[in-house]
Amino acid sequence: MRIVLSRTDRVGDLILSTPAIASVRRSFPHAHITLACSRYNVVVVERSRDVDELVTFSGDRSPRAFGAALRGADLAVALAPRDIDHRIVAATRAPRRVGYTYARRYLARLVLRTMLTDVVLSAADPAVAERRPDRPVAHEVDQVLAVVQAAGATRVAHGLVLHVTDADRAAVADLPERPIVVQLAKRWTEHGSTENSCVQLFRDLRTLGRPLVATYADDGRTLAERIRREGVADAVIGDLRFYAWAAVFERAACVLTIDTGATHVASAVRVPTVVLFEHKWFELASREWSPYRVPNAVLRKPPDESDAALRASRAEIVAAVATLL
Description:
Layout: E1 2-6, H1 11-16, H2 18-27, E2 32-38, E3 53-57, H3 63-68, E4 75-78, H4 83-92, E5 96-102, H5 106-115, E6 118-122, H6 126-131, H7 140-150, H8 166-171, E7 180-184, H9 195-205, E8 212-216, H10 221-230, E9 235-238, H11 242-250, E10 254-258, H12 262-268, E11 273-277, H13 282-288, E12 296-300, H14 307-324
Parallel strand pairs: 1-2, 1-4, 2-3, 4-5, 5-6, 7-8, 7-10, 8-9, 10-11, 11-12
Helix pairs in contact: 2-7, 9-14
């Protein structure tokens, strides 16, 4: 049996799909499993023991042409509710082609009926979640698991999968032990947070008596330079290989981050996590993409950047970190 899985979007989303990928492997142990991913998110699965082949979609070919090169599969599953992944799966012409979309995307539902043999509907909807916070919202992990179960997976795995090695740990062994790790990103400086407030947050976190380590990728570089200049962290480290970054999180007592893929890296290495979500669409995002199966606190950015709002937000963050230490 030949199976094609497709998830070509973000790093965090692919991490949240690793239980579904593992479930397919457990359910079809003798199948040849090909995973279509992107050049950006492939780092998540480069060490995966649950796939036999990785193929990367780079955009130099259309999704249709890319998927056509994967013909011969018996089953193809889109693990993301995205047009690119749907088109890749449709182009495989597998006898069973499974994917999902959101229930309120009525046009997408109609189109997918012509592309896929099975369409799973997700009830997640930002407008409904804000109006009716009492309504349950399934976590992204569970939504993707529902898709592979619709495709025939019967042996369901729930744990996120990242393979951090001793070599990865050795690469960051000179960092302080059991620190608070703060993942820097541009969103710490906008929409209910500011650069100055972020710097002050580091000073406030000092009261907890733990070393502070800041990590960053490209979009957090400017903020990282400010944190380094101010001397408010014990270490500021960026440009890490993906699994070395995961190893930094693994040695943390707590990870603090804006809503980014860092949330799901921290969950995968089973570290308590505090996440600051955007004020808009908080009710949906904080449940659908919350830390998964680890002790956590999900907080909402303030609606404005007044001194009082920022001060209250910092106090809430520090209190949340303290409860998880």
